[in-house]
Automatic annotation (TrEMBL):
Native source species: Artemisia annua (Sweet wormwood)
Annotated InterPro entries: Papain-like_cys_pep_sf, Transpos_assoc
Signal peptide: none
Keywords: Hydrolase, Protease
Entry's Gene Ontology BP terms: proteolysis
Organism superkingdom: Eukaryota
Protein name: Ulp1 protease family, C-terminal catalytic domain-containing protein
Gene Ontology terms for molecular function: peptidase activity
Amino acid sequence: MDRKWMYSMNINDPEFVNGVQSFLIAAESNRVAKGDIEIYCPCSQCKNFVPYNNIKAIEYHLLKFGFVCNYTCWSEHGESLVDNSTSIHVSNANEKNDSYINDKHENLNEMLHDLEANGDIDQEDLQQLRFLKCKNRNIPIVAPKEMYAKPWNEWIEYEAIVDLHVEGKVDISFIHWWAMHLHSVVNGLRENKFTFLNPHHISSGECLRNDKQVVNHILETRRLNLGKEIYVAPYLKGRHWLLFVVCPNLRAGYIVDSAIEDNERNYYFPEIVERAFEIKFDWTMAKCFQQKGHWECG
């Protein structure tokens, strides 16, 4: 089958876009037929090594990065290597393809060893492969019991791990995990004056839509941490991370933001903090020099 459209035209060309749609239909049909949960992404970044359970993520990657080289036969997605047709083979004849995919996982440790020894792969691809060898590719994280008034647990999704390596995006679960780690560290100190707010509960979206719940979270954290003087609050504003450091005993707050906004009036959070503590704060914009990159904030 002629699939010149995969490599001979611009990824914004309508024929390429339509071709991507035909691939997605074929890949999804193969996934359903085999009873799989995930589909391997054949973009030039993932190279059929990285699986997704959201087909929209694969569509996004293909329209952004294009296909991996020499993949005109969609062998990883149910297409026969013999006739290179567009039909999806779902019978017992597909056992060879199943075996190939299973062998990919079973032999991953050996492949990683060879790639590391020969230096034939860049570090980003190597990190992706290391994550692939984990049977459970989502990472469960649980907040320490004394961190919040109510139990909290979540997952670092595998897609978030891939996005970190491929696109440099820092998911909220990473920031929260790091806050949990810092909480555990400072909680072991003889004089611990720190406590942390849950970034899921205080983001700009939550402050805008559920300001009363944000106030309640602050008050619950305060009641649980009587005597603590410093509240550390990682804050997601749109797609940008910044940090609030709240010191109610000093009636002071500090804003660490590499985007360098003018003052606290550019954020929803300071006003909610003042409502929760029922005092007026003196807010200071800390000097924070922006590093290179779109996601340096995280």
